Amino acid sequence: xxxxxxxxxxxxxxxxxxxxxxxxxxxxxxxxxxxxxxxxxxxxxxxxxxxxxxxxxxxxxxxxxxxxxxxxxxxxxxxxxxxxxxxxxxxxxxxxxxxxxxxxxxxxxxxxxxxxxxxxxxxxxxxxxxxxxxxxxxxxxxxxxxxxxxxxxxxxxxxxxxxxxx
Amino acid sequence: xxxxxxxxxxxxxxxxxxxxxxxxxxxxxxxxxxxxxxxxxxxxxxxxxxxxxxxxxxxxxxxxxxxxxxxxxxxxxxxxxxxxxxxxxxxxxxxxxxxxxxxxxxxxxxxxxxxxxxxxxxxxxxxxxxxxxxxxxxxxxxxxxxxxxxxxxxxxxxxxxxxxxx
Lengths: 166, 166
Description:
The complex is a heterodimer of chains A (166) and B (166).
Chain A: H1 3-24, H2 27-43, H3 54-74, H4 77-88, H5 93-107, H6 111-122, H7 127-134, H8 138-155
Chain B: H1 3-15, H2 20-32, H3 34-52, H4 57-63, H5 69-76, H6 89-121, H7 137-149, H8 155-163
């Protein structure tokens, strides 16, 4: 087993789980995603100069793995329903519903929009850092972020009554 | 402030990337424009919904403690993970199966010996006596006659002579 992959695993497994859980909303799924991400790293270790530099690569792979799972789920609706029923005992209806809405919203985003959203919301990176990591312009990163929020807003049917800012 | 500039500032505002002076100016803009205020509030609600699915780093670490890279590699290789908490489980089951087969074989041999021993106590039966085939006396007389008449003849010659008898 490559030593550098072991180092990445120790340093980043909680982070990958956190992303996966935020995207999937379920412990079981998030654990599966973590395993799949590090399995991909084991199969094709990236040329990473340091543990810190692996974060961008891991974020991209996590996003792809989650989307792959969602697409596979869509083509296996029965299996997906069964998994939801299994999870029902563990999680509240509200959190399940929220997770499902977020999932539907995030699924509609492009890979770059998703990555910007993850980096901004889950890792609190600045737009400049995100732009540097993804190799895009700062205004583009901001546009991706707003589009991602817009998709979530539309999915959750957030419609504020006119009034004063809180 | 045109719409494009408003959008860029909105992204910075939501991300907390405006300094105090910029933030105050932006809030003033929202106070003066109800449509923009409503839009900002909706985006804030969307960002809050995304954050509701976030776990703390501590919780993510706790939930991934049980994961090991070795198990993940084993899963990738298509075999069951050999967890350190149950190292002898597979061996134990295999040993149990072997012992079960061994017990069946021993029982079968034992049963064989018992049956064989019981059979050997029984009185031995003499082999059935084969019924003698009826002898054609005329053939015997012919054979003796030919043998006496031609003592040096071969068996084949005697057979021919017997056939040629009147």
